[in-house]
Structure to design on (92 residues):
């Protein structure tokens, strides 16, 4: 796929773009190995239309903080009992 047609299709030029016709002839295993080695995603297109984007799986580090929790902090002492007002009426 040429760069001009990539821009026309609204695909970022930084993405690895492969025509579906070339994927059919390639070994899928080799394509996956390339993704593993480079860590880059590959977009497969038919003409100017994006069909599939293959994205490498990120390794989850259990000790790494979830970005959603970034900036969150616990206020108070977690060992202190909650006041009655923090409990629903039916659980008091």
């Amino acid at each position: 796929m040429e760069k001009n047609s990539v821009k026309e299709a609204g695909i970022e030029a930084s993405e690895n773009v492969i025509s579906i016709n070339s994927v059919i002839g390639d070994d899928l295993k080799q394509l996956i190995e390339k993704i593993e080695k480079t860590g880059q995603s590959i977009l497969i297109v038919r003409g100017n239309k994006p069909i599939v984007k293959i994205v490498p799986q990120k390794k989850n580090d259990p000790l790494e903080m979830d970005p959603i929790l970034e900036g969150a902090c616990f206020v108070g002492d977690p060992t202190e009992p909650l006041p009655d007002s923090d409990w629903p009426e039916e659980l008091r």
Summary: The mean pLDDT is 75.
